[in-house]
Automatic annotation (TrEMBL):
Pfam families: TetR_N. This is TetR/AcrR family transcriptional regulator. Residues 37-56 bind DNA. It comes from Leucobacter allii. Residues 14-74 form the HTH tetR-type domain. The keyword GTP-binding does not apply. PROSITE patterns: HTH_TETR_1, HTH_TETR_2. Keywords: DNA-binding, Transcription, Transcription regulation. The lineage of its organism: Bacteria, Bacillati, Actinomycetota, Actinomycetes, Micrococcales.
């Protein structure tokens, strides 16, 4: 398959996923998540039930916009490859580890294309269905565990090394704070996606200076 054909296919998949998620959020905000079925959602989105489950593992995940399969392989590969070109400090960790992990978070953010309108629609659905908050926490935990395993793999650390989990928890917490700041800033006028990057890197530098 040519690169252009692959790009078109990826774009169509992204558009289909967005259409399903937009409809799921709107229906949930208006009527609650138990007031409609996957079949009804598929009919409105113009997809089959099989197609739906190729994109999302459940109706709840469709509302949250969490894909059935992680789609960040390119960013993960770049993060893992970053160890090869980096020296190692006294603690045995690669010098570029923090910067490369931040770049991984930034890459994911950019690929999401998450807008202020998306945030409003998601928050409206969460307000209507508070139980979705539990699923959000589950996904956050799953993502944290996956990222901890990535850091351990990249750095050659044994499972359970607390340096890996501490780093992931620290950057993850900053990522969530910066996401909130980003949308607050958006409320006062349009901001570019680079604003997220600037805010996150500022937080990282503050943490470095405080913990040095």
């Amino acid at each position: 398959m040519s690169e252009s054909a692959t790009g078109v296919r990826a774009q169509r998949r992204a558009e289909t996923a967005r259409r399903i998620t937009d409809l799921a959020r709107r229906r949930t905000a208006e009527r609650g998540i138990t007031a409609y079925t996957v079949e009804e959602l598929c009919e409105d989105a113009g997809v089959s039930r099989r197609t739906f489950f190729n994109y999302f593992a459940s109706k709840e995940d469709a509302v949250l916009g969490v894909p059935a399969e992680r789609d960040d392989a390119h960013f993960v590969e770049r993060f893992l490859d970053g160890a090869a070109g980096s020296g190692r400090g006294d603690g045995g960790l690669t010098d570029s580890l923090v910067d490369d992990l931040v770049a991984l978070f930034e890459g994911r953010w950019r690929s999401m294309g998450f807008t202020l309108e998306d945030a409003r629609a998601l928050f409206a659905a969460l307000d209507r269905e508070p139980r979705l908050h539990r699923r959000v926490l589950e996904h956050l935990r799953e993502s944290e565990l996956a990222d901890i395993a990535l850091v351990e793999r990249r750095e050659g650390l044994p499972p359970g090394d607390r340096r890996a989990s501490t780093l992931v928890h620290l950057v993850g917490a900053m990522n969530r704070i910066v996401a909130e700041e980003y949308f607050v800033a958006h409320e006062h006028g349009p901001v570019g996606v680079d604003t997220y990057t600037e805010l996150l890197r500022e937080r990282i530098e503050i943490a470095r200076s405080l913990l040095r």
